[in-house]
Amino acid sequence: MKKILALLFFLCVTTGAFASYVLIPMDAEGQKNHLKAYGVTYWTLEKQLKVKWLLNYRGGSFLVPDTEEIQRECQIRGVSFEVISNSKAEEILELISSPSQNMEAVVLEKAPKIAVYTPYGLQPWDDAVTMVLTYAEIPYDTIYDEEVLNDALLLYDWLHLHHEDFTGQYGKFYRSFKSAAWYIEEKKEAEALAARLGYSKVSQEKLAVAKKIKDYVVGGGFMFAMCSATDSFDIALSAEGVDICEPMFDGDGSDPGYQNKIDYSKTFAFKDYLLERNPNVYEFSSIDMTQKRRIPKTTDYFTLMEFSAKWDPVPTMLCQNHTALVKGFMGQTTAFTRDEIKSNVLIMGENKTNGEAKYIHGIKGKGFFTFYGGHDPEDYTHRVGDPKTELDLHPTSPGYRLILNNVLFPAAKKKKQKT
Predict the structure, then answer these.
(1) Contact 346, 362 (CB under 8 A)
(2) What whole-number percentage of the chain has pLDDT above 90?
(3) Rounded (10°) angle between helices 202-218 and 228-238
(4) What does the alpha-carbon distance between residue 256 and residue 246 come to, in Å, rounded to a whole number?
(5) Is-contact 104 60, C-beta < 8 A?
(6) In terms of DSSP bridges, do strands 141-143 and 114-117 run parallel, antiparallel, or are they unpaired?
(7) Partners of 346 in the beta sheet?
(8) Mean pLDDT in the chain?
(9) Which region holds residue 2: left if phi is over 0, alpha if psi is between -120 and 50, else beta?
(10) What percent of the chain has pLDDT over 70?
(11) Is 46 helix (H, G, I), strand (E, B) or coil?
């Protein structure tokens, strides 16, 4: 009888220590493939299982239910994981909940439906977000102007814009590429699309698209933009009813004194910028820091800001990483002039020595937007025609992690932001 009682006691004590959770660590030492870890997390949400995102705990780790299927998926994708007991998980959550710790456990509830705004034809450059979504095995749909104007955005939780020109100036590529076959074809296709959709100019059609995207965000959507999609989007909104395009772009002259007609109240993030009038200059406005930079590649880094995880979980989520110092990278729009960012927009990544913001976030109506300067986090000067980045060579990329933080953000059960 004593042996039976002892056995029962042993079973009771050890049951609580049995594995019941999988911890996907996201620190530098514990994770060998940070990017695919996001894919496993998204896959778990697709299985209608909830995930806890442990903000500021070991680089923003994920706590998921312990199932053979999840363990197998981690192994297949090369994602590091730790099987932990129920009591260990409770110990971690207790630590995180302590007022003395700048940590928080955020519940991820549902896999967000993702749309990537991209032209139908092949472009002579790559899209960092499309590449990392593919690498992480996170599904997405591609949409473009026709779908946006037909209200297809209502079907999606998250929208990505990359290297797009919403001003109708074809990326300001005129000087360098006006004779290139791809540029000529792109201009021709854009004009044909605008005409088919009922617009006399590409700039007018792109403004209509930008306004639809604005309505999507105001209604509760999440927009993420990189490179020239950031400033050209705001410029297009602010130039509504004003012709800022020179004849080589739209066949007629720009409005006289158009700079004085810009309405900064219509923008998401930027104010008081000066537009670049010269069509031969590869630049949209003074928002971008590319031509003002005096930083050598070897010392080009930006710092992620630290926020209160318990009071400001939104920017904390978007800044989760295994390092606070991230390698800089160039683009048509590399970074943003700090003085031209609206006061209600949060700067999440910056290079103070150069007076520039790299990574910013804001609220518009019921929705959110994030602007991330630069083109490819692992290709410093990615130029037109350069080969695409092989992410197998950069599975722990901090710069790409910031993109994936934004992808998962709509899955979170939101708390009111205090900042």
Answers:
(1) yes
(2) 82
(3) 100
(4) 11
(5) no
(6) parallel
(7) 361
(8) 92
(9) alpha
(10) 92
(11) helix
Q: What angle do CA 13, 15, 18 make, to 5 degrees?
A: 125
- The single-letter code of the amino acid at 31 is Q
The alpha carbon of residue 297 and the mean position of all alpha carbons in its chain are separated, in whole angstroms, by: 23
Identify each DSSP E strand in 29-93 by its residue range.
51-55, 61-65, 82-85
Report the C-alpha gap between 294 and 354 in whole angstroms: 7
* Largest separation between any pair of C-alpha atoms in the chain: 99
Residue 108 near residue 408 (C-beta atoms within 8 A): yes
Going across the sheet that includes 82-85, the strands are: 82-85, 19-24, 61-65, 51-55, 104-108
Count of alpha carbons within 13 angstroms of residue 289, beta-carbon side: 27
Residue positions counted in the chain: 419
And the tokens for 274? Answer: 């000066």
DSSP letter, residue 65: E
Q: Are 319 and 361 in contact (CB under 8 A)?
A: no
**Alpha helix (H) ranges present in 162-270?**
174-177, 181-196, 202-218, 228-238, 247-250
Residues 6 or more apart whose CB falls under 8 angstroms from that of 233 comprise: 161, 164, 166, 210, 213, 225, 268
**Smallest Cα–Cα separation from 26: which of 64, 66, 54, 48?**
54
Q: What is the pLDDT of residues 168-209, one digit of tens each?
A: 998 888 888 899 998 898 999 999 999 999 999 999 999 999
Which are the contacts of 178, defined by CB distance < 8 A and separation ≥ 6? 184, 248
DSSP β-bridge partners for residue 116: 142, 160
- Which of helix, strand or coil describes residue 349? strand
- Any bridge partners for residue 24, and if so which? 62
Domains of the chain: 2-108 (no CATH), 114-411 (3.40.50.880)
Instruction: Tell me whether strands 158-162 and 114-117 are parallel, antiparallel or unpaired.
Output: parallel
- Where does the pLDDT of residue 126 fall: very low under 50, low under 70, confident under 90, or very high at 90 and above? confident
364 three-class SS: strand
What is the C-alpha to C-alpha distance for residues 399 and 226, in angstroms, rounded to an integer? 12
Q: What residue spans of 365-411 are helical by DSSP H?
A: 398-408
Number of other CB atoms surrounding residue 82 within 10 Å: 14
